[in-house]
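README: folding subset

This subset contains proteins for which both the sequence and a predicted structure token string are available. Records are stored as plain text. Below is the entry for Urea transport system ATP-binding protein (250 residues), shown exactly as it appears on disk.
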Amino acid sequence: MNDDYLEVRGVCVDFDGFRAIDDVDLTLLQGRLHFLIGPNGAGKTTLVDAVTGLVPASGLIRYRNQDLLRTKPHRIVRSGIGRTFQTATVFEGLSVLQNLDIAGGIHRRAWRMGLARRGTPSYVEEALETIGLTDLRERPAGVLAHGQKQWLEIGMLLVQDARVMLLDEPVAGMSAEEREQTGDLLRRIGSERTIVVIEHDMEFVRSYADVVTVMHAGKVLAEGTVAEIQADPRVQEVYLGRTAEEADHA
Ligand SMILES: Nc1ncnc2c1ncn2[C@@H]1O[C@H](COP(=O)(O)OP(=O)(O)OP(=O)(O)O)[C@@H](O)[C@H]1O
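--- output ---
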């Protein structure tokens, strides 16, 4: 196996004596769409916070032989790990292109020099193309549709050259069409990246997940394909049971 995977071993996060993440093990492989599901409060966002250095954690989180628990958040970004949050964090008053400029800060010098001579650098053009916003590049991000803002955020990770993308509920609030476009986008960019999606939308999980990890009360309850997860009685009890029942009545 190459070293392009994220390894989580025995990770714990405590908040004033409350154990929000409890001895979590995960191996996130490149080229698979990995989904993290579980009831509210299961610890999904906190786990992503631990990987990106936003909360202190114990245990081991390693990417490309780098120990992330001993790495500062901005260096974690530089080492190729990017994330989105539940609410979009684009700069609404700035254009799509300016948002990508800011996100590509690691490359900024090269771009500034390049801009004077050659216009928009190729990696920004590629990101615009990939997220489908080429024609909207001069638009203020604030006027974009909800789905387009989420795609811009993903574009911002692309220009950062994030090899690992941790996406917190990227399709929340999207129309069915936007969800499908997002799923296709994740498939395209996921073939050469490690992508982890926190998601509540089970229809979306069923359509796009290669691997699903179910969290409950800070622990990994189960891991497998959608079919394996759905057949697991422990998962049905804490989480999918409710969803499956709802699906039966739908
Ligand atoms: N900064 C914090 N201080 C104290 N407790 C926290 C903090 N952040 C999260 N928690 C608690 O940790 C637990 C896990 O929260 P987390 O947000 O990671 O869950 P989640 O699975 O992402 O839930 P949701 O699906 O609702 O987003 C919850 O009980 C939450 O209240």
